[in-house]
Specification:
Blueprint (H helix, E strand, L loop, with lengths): L4 H6 L1 E7 L3 H12 L6 E8 L7 H4 L6 H4 L2 H8 L4 E5 L9 H4 L5 E4 L5 E2 L12 E3 H8 L16 E5 L3 H11 L12 H9 L4 E5 L11 H5 L7 E4 L2 H13 L5 H15 L7 E6 L2 E7 L6 E10 L2 E12 L2 E4 L3 E2 L8 E2 L2 E2 L5 E2 L4 E3 L2 H4 L7 H16 L23 H16 L11 H8 L1
Parallel strand pairs: 1-2, 1-4, 2-3, 4-19, 6-14, 7-8, 7-14, 8-10, 9-10
Antiparallel strand pairs: 5-15, 11-12, 12-13, 16-17, 18-19
Helix pairs in contact: 2-14, 11-12, 15-16
The protein binds NADP nicotinamide-adenine-dinucleotide phosphate (NAP).
The site of NADP nicotinamide-adenine-dinucleotide phosphate has 24 residues, from helix 8.
Length: 445
């Protein structure tokens, strides 16, 4: 059956995506992929910063440039004619959700999970006790975190948590900063790390090595570090093997991790002055110090019948820097209801509204960047099922955005991106990040 022009127009829907991180771009891609001759989408993406790519820019560790290369895919998605970018526009502040919803057939919240969970132990408020949610964007040049005070004068740092974010924090502190010279790490962070006295980094997990959330590729790269000895007690690795075997069939990922632990434990130490050391079965009890972090007390756990229990024994580490990397929750946005650190949703649908959610805002802080691709595809399927037969005609959002805001559109963002890359070329780096909002906006003009 032939489709008339009216029908084609009738099936052209407008979707707003809030947040220009991996979830946002993969949502746009899922909408683009779902288009047919009878169903088309205009996509408006809103981002509160003048810079794009979310965690690909401000989360991924600078010594993992390959992971950052997904930004090329994002730029291709953004180059489609039906895609518009509204950067430097904060939804919930500059624009209300109530202003978006009537103008779009659907609004997809891809605003992530940027607030660090806290340990809830005494001393957590002391100077030198940070969340990875502050430390990571500090070293990655996120404009809001440039002034985070990271005390690097002591010789020891302690990272709490056994996930990939903890690993990134530990590596950035534990490797020789010359290994970061050719990366796009923030200029202020590189300078601070070159002056850092930290030589010993402890990573503390509350359960056993067999339970750690690190992924095997991240563990396998540790023995390859050129200027850092990586230490795990071989008895702890052996005990983890024994426990995992006793618990039944070992899952593939756990088996890969256990093998990686074995290789780390067996790797000969080179006597570098820098080291990263894993402590398992250690739960933080208290951070002590007079106005600033001086010591952290750990309780020692053991595993009995598969259960982690507190032995009542403790040990302490003298340190001036404790970073907790124990997960995130979503920041609140006016007009959106949140529950358990996520946008309140059912499989990505915000019930009773034309709002949807994808990524960490939807499912919590889990999965790698690529996880957002399938997540977005699943939610877009539901969004399409829900579309009214007749698209909305609520008018263009541009008229509602306050005149005082300099909107960073795709052309402006391309200028910022090109200027940063050009600044990096002179120094043999992928880019030099500008970290001041006013200067970023100036680069776009
Ligand atoms: P995660 O993988 O969920 O790890 C969180 C860690 O914190 C777990 O070891 C957890 O231990 C521990 N923890 C939670 N509450 C604690 C407490 N009160 N005291 C002590 N420890 C506590 O989270 P993440 O490291 O933030 O990473 C988030 C996601 O991003 C993950 O899916 C990760 O793989 C991904 N990511 C990937 C990469 C990469 O691919 N290179 C890099 C960074 C992040 P329990 O298991 O005992 O709860």
């Amino acid at each position: 059956m032939e489709t008339s022009i009216e029908e084609v127009l009738l099936s052209h829907y407008k979707v707003a995506i809030v947040g220009a991180g991996p979830a946002g771009y993969f949502t746009a891609q899922a909408l683009q992929n779902a288009q047919t001759s009878e169903l088309t989408f205009s996509i408006d993406m809103f981002e509160r910063l003048p810079t794009m790519w979310g965690l690909v820019r401000s989360g991924v560790a600078p010594d993992h440039p390959k992971i950052r290369s997904v930004s090329k895919v994002f730029e291709k998605i953004a180059s489609e004619p039906s895609f518009r970018l509204f950067g430097n526009v904060e939804v919930g502040t500059d624009l209300d959700i109530e202003e978006l919803c009537p103008r779009y057939d659907a609004v997809v919240m891809c605003t992530g999970s940027s607030i660090g969970k806290t340990l809830g132990i005494p001393g957590e408020e002391l100077l030198g006790s940070l969340s990875a949610a502050e430390f990571v964007p500090w070293y990655n040049g996120h404009p809001d975190y440039v002034n985070v005070d990271v005390p690097l004068g002591g010789d020891t740092a302690v990272i709490i948590g056994a996930g990939n974010v903890a690993m990134d924090c530990a590596r950035i502190l534990g490797i020789n900063p010359i290994e970061l010279d050719s990366t796009d790490i923030a200029v202020h962070a590189l300078a601070a790390l070159h002056k850092s006295n930290i030589r010993k980094v402890y990573i503390a997990g509350r359960r056993g090595p067999e339970h750690a959330a690190f992924t095997a590729p991240e563990l396998r790269e540790l023995p390859k570090l050129e200027h850092t000895d990586v230490i795990i007690d071989s008895d702890a690795v052996h005990a983890a093997h024994v426990r995992a075997e006793a618990a039944g069939e070992i899952e593939k990922q756990t088996a890969a991790n256990l093998e990686a632990w074995r290789l780390i434990a067996e790797h000969p130490r080179s006597g570098h002055e820098r080291s990263m050391e894993f402590h398992f079965l250690s739960h933080p009890i208290e951070i002590k110090g007079d106005g600033k972090v001086e010591e952290i007390i750990f309780g020692i756990n053991e595993i009995k019948d598969g259960k982690v229990i507190d032995t009542g024994k403790t040990y302490s580490i003298k340190t001036n820097l404790v970073i907790s990397a124990i997960g995130y929750h979503a920041p609140h946005i006016k007009g959106i209801s949140f529950r358990d650190g996520k946008v309140e949703n059912e499989n990505g649908r915000v019930l009773g509204t034309n709002i949807y959610t994808v990524g960490w805002a939807k499912r919590g802080p889990s999965g790698v960047i690529g996880t957002n691709k399938s997540d977005a595809a699943d939610v877009i399927k539901l969004l399409i099922e829900d579309l009214n037969p007749e698209p909305k005609n609520g008018g263009d959002i541009s008229v509602v955005i306050p005149q005082s805001i300099v909107v960073i559109d795709q052309a402006s963002w391309s200028k910022i991106n090109a200027a940063e890359v050009a600044a990096g070329e002179e120094l043999g780096k992928p880019r030099v990040k500008e970290v001041v909002i006013a200067k970023l906006i100036a680069l776009a003009e």
